[in-house]
Design a protein that fits this description.
Number of domains: 2
Number of strands: 19
Radius of gyration: 22 Å
CATH class of the largest domain: Alpha Beta
Bound molecules: iron/sulfur cluster
Strand content: 15-25%
Shape: globular
CATH superfamily of the largest domain: Aldolase class I
Number of helices: 12
Helix content: 25-40%
Structural class: alpha/beta
Strand order of the largest sheet: 7-8-9-10-11-12-13-14
Oligomer: single chain
Length: about 450
């Protein structure tokens, strides 16, 4: 089985010339209700005090972030093709409001009339029922080292069968995977032609058109993970919050088969679905994009507080997690902000959850920014250590000495040495430092 970059959906020969890929804010036809709300916000800004104005600006921002794609659900013919393939599934965590529906998976809380498509592009209101179009139809799948997530304190050196569908709840200007995250499922998959279901044993080469056509139901994902000797399944690359139902059903089956579940997420999920899914999670990797609401809005079209709440929820549930912070020049490289973030983590999450400061490289809509200077990353690492965080790493800087080495917080000896995704030194016994027997936080076996 070939599962490499050639399977990446960006190579699919599809016409995306009319796609509003990566558009921000999302295309949205204002309703009369929207106009009234905008109008109220505008009047109040003039007449009211700063506090009132700020509150209303926030409300308008939220309204824009919640924007759905009006009337963009697939037509009957396309819907029928998807339904027959098993690529549709009723949504979970949503409200029926007459013929309208409101998704409650993430804080966008998309409110959809019949025929509308969600902000994440994956959900539609079809005749008063919420459906996801991102089910059993991954557009990308690979077998990765778990270090690539990155997770450093979770079964080091193991493989993780990794999947993604189209769609995302955010609009990050620097997205590395915008070719799938900022697409509709119909732009990454094509159900026409004979059915192709990927199950082990897989022989021969998987072509790009196979990837577009193939189905991978939850039981197939679990079987493929076992067949590839993967310790875990990672829900990753785009955003599993946007393909929650597929993630949830697969997690449940994987748990039954003794395969671990890893959520690689932006963390912007409502608490009830997070707690429900958390019962089946073994680890999470949460992208904490900064420590400022305004930066979150500007850079990601998201909000900080829901992400902090997710971190607290995972902590409360005992799910192992690590945090990544991409240090983007002029956006998230402010030392004071990094200090406040690390202080918050130390006070609210504790010192044992690793933080990975990752180097930005020009991507997507931030092509003109330079890569993050290494000195800034080293400064961030020092700030984290000064705040009391025991495991602070630097990622995306090949060759930087000890950037990804785990040091014992007691004796300061190197206990795990890594070379990109390879473990080159391992000095733990049963999760303890071999030199001084101090317990190293993580899930080791
Ligand atoms: S998961 Fe998607 S449909 Fe649901 S609220 Fe979030 S953006 Fe909207």
């Amino acid at each position: 089985m070939r599962m490499d970059s050639e399977n990446d959906i960006s190579r699919l020969p599809q016409d995306t010339s009319n796609v509003p890929a990566g558009t921000f804010p999302p295309s949205k036809r204002l309703t009369r209700r929207d106009m009234i709300r905008y109008g109220v916000a505008g009047v109040a800004c003039v007449a009211g005090g700063c506090a009132v104005a700020a509150y209303l600006i926030d409300a308008v921002r939220e309204l824009t972030a919640e924007g759905v794609f009006k009337g963009d659900a697939p037509n009957d013919a396309v819907w029928e093709l998807w339904r027959q393939r098993g690529w549709t599934h009723e949504g979970s965590y949503y409200l029926k409001l007459g013929r309208n529906v409101q998704c409650k998976i993430c804080p966008n809380n998309c409110l959809m009339e019949p025929g509308d498509r969600s902000h994440c592009r994956n959900k539609i209101n079809r005749d008063g029922t919420l459906y996801t179009l991102a089910f059993a139809n991954p557009c990308s799948f690979h077998v990765d080292p778990v270090e690539k997530k990155p997770l450093f304190h979770f079964f080091p050196g193991s493989l993780s069968f990794s999947i993604a569908t189209a769609g995302c709840v955010f609009r990050c200007l620097n997205c590395q995977n915008w070719e799938i995250s900022q697409k509709k499922p119909e732009e990454t998959k094509d159900p026409r032609g004979p059915e192709l279901r990927l199950r082990p044993p897989v022989t021969g080469t998987i072509t790009a058109s196979d990837v577009a056509r193939l189905s991978m139901f939850p039981e197939d994902v679990v079987a493929l993970a076992a067949w590839t000797k993967s310790v875990s399944i990672s829900y990753t690359y785009s955003e599993p919050t946007a393909y929650y139902e597929y993630t949830y059903e697969t997690c449940k089956l994987a748990r039954e088969r003794g395969i671990k579940n890893v959520l690689v997420t932006c963390g912007s999920m409502e608490e009830p679905p997070m707690r429900d899914l958390g019962r089946y999670l073994d680890a999470a990797h949460v992208d904490l994009k900064g420590f400022s609401e305004s930066i979150y809005w500007t850079l990601n079209a998201g909000r900080l507080q829901p992400v902090l709440k997710t971190l607290r929820t995972l902590k409360d549930m005992g799910v192992w997690f690590e945090i990544i912070n991409l240090v983007v020049p002029t956006y998230t490289d402010n030392p004071d902000m990094i200090r406040r973030m690390c202080d918050w983590l130390a006070a609210n999450i504790g010192p044992d959850h690793p933080i990975h400061f990752s180097r930005f490289h020009p991507q997507h809509k931030l092509q003109t920014l330079p890569p993050t200077p290494v000195e800034i990353l080293l400064q961030a690492q020092s700030i984290a250590r000064a705040a009391g965080l025991r495991y602070a790493y630097i990622g995306n800087v090949p060759g930087l000495p000890n950037a990804e080495t785990t040091f014992c917080p007691n004796c300061k000896r190197a206990v795990i040495i890594r070379d990109i995704y390879t473990i080159t030194g391992f000095h733990l016994d049963a999760g303890k430092c071999r030199f001084c027997q101090t317990k190293i936080a993580g899930v080791w076996s």
